């Protein structure tokens, strides 16, 4: 494949020789950032020549886009030889509900084989990678330890290292990149919703996080993955970046994305976070809170989002956070523990609040929190300040360690 041919194809696609995308002029914590933020995928001139002549495997989902088009479709149209697609939770095209196992398939649009990384296995096999010369990782993260794409990143890096394949990461901004907060994961509680000894909000992009996985020797047997990263242009961690595409079905608004680091803890409780509504991770409630709160919502099965949600077809009473001023989170640079403390105090049947079997949710509370202490502290009536003090010195130690892997200020 010749670069001149690629340039001609790009010109044909866009009509002016460059990727079409919506400018993202974002606010920083201290003012307005005037330059356009450009994700790695949109900087095709920096990596198209590197893909030339290679058989490409891609770890992608609907958030993986070049301009306004799915990156697989764009790159295939540009003549890139994509031989295999690897899909994370929710699948390559993003039509699977949360937690639903996804089977291997063939993408009907492109005819390319799709290997599920959220089905029988979460790690590409040697057979999966045999026909691949170079792997490309392009998934939008949201900056929270619970997000399963971090486990996917680890497993893909490990498979690449073990099979002598390079991994090209097309980096994207972290919408919660301003925040580094929460208890550091106790590795005794390691799971798919907590894979590394990091706090709840890690404050890193995928490219930075991948460098940390390598640098801290977290891959099996200390193997190192050969990485090539296309950084985000004109980006720093204090920028408030609005995602152009929903990163997953139940993070379908910017509000939910900014609330997610604080609200996902409720997945290990008896409290619904609004799965089964069109505004998940923006509300909190339970049928037993009737009379204590005026606001209510009623979860229902929604295909591709939450088909059998907690408290389906039952009115849940609680907090409406759809209009909550998320600048409070940005200003404090902290997750909000107040909601967890409030809902525990309000709930009448305390013994059920953290009962995972009763709640039938997807995450055990201790695994989500990363520690057994938080549950005990809430039950004991500890204040938020007292709880935060228990996160030290590990949180400060992580912040110091994190510095050496940052690509952005």
Architecture overview:
It is built from 15 helices and twelve strands. Helix content is 28%, strand content 12%. It has 409 residues and is an alpha/beta fold. Residues 56-254 form the Peptidoglycan beta-N-acetylmuramidase NamZ N-terminal domain. Pfam families: NamZ_C, NamZ_N. This is DUF1343 domain-containing protein. Residues 258-408 form the Peptidoglycan beta-N-acetylmuramidase NamZ C-terminal domain.
- Our Rg estimate from Cα atoms comes to 21 Å
Sheet bearing the most strands, described?
Answer: 7 strands, mixed
Model regions low in confidence, pLDDT < 50 over at least 5 residues: 1-23
Q: List the quaternary state of the chains.
A: single chain
> What's the number of domains?
2
Please state roughly what percent of the residues sit in beta strands, choosing from under 5%, 5-15%, 15-25%, 25-35%, 35-45% or over 45%: 5-15%
* First-residue to last-residue Cα separation: 37 Å
How many distinct beta strands?
Answer: 12
Could you give the order of strands across the largest sheet? 5-6-4-1-7-8-9
Sum up the overall morphology in one term.
Answer: globular
Q: What is the helix tally?
A: 15
Domain Peptidoglycan beta-N-acetylmuramidase NamZ C-terminal: 258-408
Pfam family, one: NamZ_C
Domain Peptidoglycan beta-N-acetylmuramidase NamZ N-terminal: 56-254
Protein name: DUF1343 domain-containing protein
């Amino acid at each position: 494949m010749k670069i001149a041919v690629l340039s001609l194809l790009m010109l044909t696609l866009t009509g002016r020789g460059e990727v079409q995308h919506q400018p993202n002029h974002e606010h920083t914590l201290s003012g307005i950032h005037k330059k356009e933020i450009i994700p790695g995928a949109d900087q095709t001139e920096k990596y198209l020549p590197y893909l030339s002549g290679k058989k490409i495997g891609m770890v992608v989902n609907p958030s993986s886009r070049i301009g306004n088009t799915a990156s697989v479709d764009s790159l295939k149209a540009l003549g890139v030889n994509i031989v295999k697609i690897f899909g994370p939770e929710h699948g390559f095209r993003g039509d699977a509900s949360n937690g639903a196992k996804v089977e291997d398939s063939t993408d009907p649009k492109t005819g390319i084989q799709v290997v599920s990384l959220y089905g029988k296995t979460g790690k590409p096999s040697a057979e999966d990678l045999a026909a691949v010369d170079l792997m490309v990782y392009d998934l939008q993260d949201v900056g929270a330890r619970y997000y399963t794409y971090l486990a996917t990143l680890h497993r893909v890096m490990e498979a690449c290292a073990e099979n002598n394949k390079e991994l090209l990461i097309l980096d994207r901004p972290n919408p919660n990149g301003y925040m580094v907060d929460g208890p550091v994961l106790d590795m005794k509680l390691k799971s798919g919703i907590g894979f590394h000894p990091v706090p709840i909000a890690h404050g890193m992009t995928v490219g930075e996080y991948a460098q940390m996985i390598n640098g801290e020797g977290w891959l099996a047997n200390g193997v190192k993955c050969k990485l090539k990263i296309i950084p985000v242009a004109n980006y720093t961690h204090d920028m408030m970046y609005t995602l152009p595409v929903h990163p997953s079905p139940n993070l379908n608004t910017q509000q939910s994305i900014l609330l997610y680091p604080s609200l996902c803890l409720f997945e290990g409780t008896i409290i619904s976070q609004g799965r089964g509504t069109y505004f998940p991770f923006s509300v909190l409630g339970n049928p037993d809170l009737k009379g204590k709160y005026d606001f209510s919502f009623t979860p229902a099965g929604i295909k591709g989002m939450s088909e059998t949600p907690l408290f389906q077809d039952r009115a849940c009473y609680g907090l409406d956070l759809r209009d909550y001023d998320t600048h409070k989170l940005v200003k404090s640079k902290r997750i909000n523990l107040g909601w967890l403390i409030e809902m525990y105090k309000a709930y009448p049947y305390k013994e059920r609040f953290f009962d995972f079997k009763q709640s039938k949710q997807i995450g055990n509370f201790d695994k989500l929190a990363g520690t057994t202490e938080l549950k005990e502290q809430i039950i004991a009536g500890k204040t938020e300040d007292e709880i935060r003090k228990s996160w030290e010195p590990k949180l400060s130690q992580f912040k110091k360690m994190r510095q050496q892997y940052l690509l952005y200020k």
